[in-house]
Amino acid sequence: MRQWADETFQKAVAKFRRSAGIAAEQDIVPYRGEGCAWQGPPFDGDGWWTNGFWPALMWQLYAATGEEIFCTEARRVQKRLEAELDAFTRLNHDVGFMYLLSEGADALLTGESMARVHVLHAATILAGRFNPSGFIRAWGQPGREGWAIIDCLMNLPLLYWATAETGDPRFSALARIQTETTIRHFLREDGSCNHIVIFDPVTGAVLDAPAGQGYARGSSWSRGQAWALYGFTLGHMATGWPECLDAAERVAGYFAAHIRPDGLTDCDFMQPPGEERIDNIAGAIAACAFLELVKLTGKSQYRDCALKLLTGMDRLSADWSDASRGVLTKCTAAYHDDGAGRHVNITYGDYFFVEALAKLRSADPMFWLHEKAQKGGESHD
Ligand code: GLY
In 3D, which of 28, 53, 24 has the Cα closest to residue 39? Predict the structure, then answer.
């Protein structure tokens, strides 16, 4: 399996070496590949929540190869993301994805001092979204003051990073409250999760749990399950909180039971039988989480899950040809709304696929965790 991971990773290096040059020529932030070209973000321009994943992918490849092209391309896009920090209005809770994986990766790999400042700036923005009635506000639209979403677990590593960086416990204290809220109000008895929970923004009372990007109210949007799985896992890795590991394993059991025989991932684990709606991004995220859970628990079944997902995607959904820009196909942004892509290549699917390969090669630089947490030297309680 190590040989497969090495060879597949090298194919990714070769493909993205070409595709990085084309992104720079097109002068856009790649969101998805379409034929020989990149397409930019579907909404919100440089402020779109996925824009940190392209630099993150570049940094993964830079960490493995040291090739200048990947560093240069990451920083080309980071300049545009820095302008979004100043503009502020298009940012939401996804500043973790946007800045920890781009500027944070830069800081980790190169020691670039201004990159650390940008990450801290992003962390203060995320902290500013905390509602003292007990949750982090997800999106900024008027009327959504009480909306919180499962995806936010994946942005909490930005807060752990800020506490590790500054020694100020406020950041991880907010993350703890968001984590407890998520366990209480999103995580269901069977290990599945709601995507959205709407709270009264004044009292914190639960008002509703609509369908979000999944098939229907009460269903199990697979990417939401994957965000929960990896988010709780990372929470435990950053802090050692046992409740995070317990929650991660509950979600892991649920996700594992819904992996398709071919290793691809349905867009919603409760979608109607016979409906062809795949989201390989969910599978790639889950594979990363399963590989970390093996290390945390010693349970080999998690490795089996990761390998089933990754080899299935490589066999059935990876495009290694020269005639396309990205690798992972059959990525789906949302069950009902095709505006951000359905069954296409989407860059953050590629990011998690490559991160998982790096883990299998024991060479993941682990952008989600501050270097102090990686050394196991900090307690954030
Ligand atoms: N809302 C973030 C996602 O599409 O996963």
Answer: 28
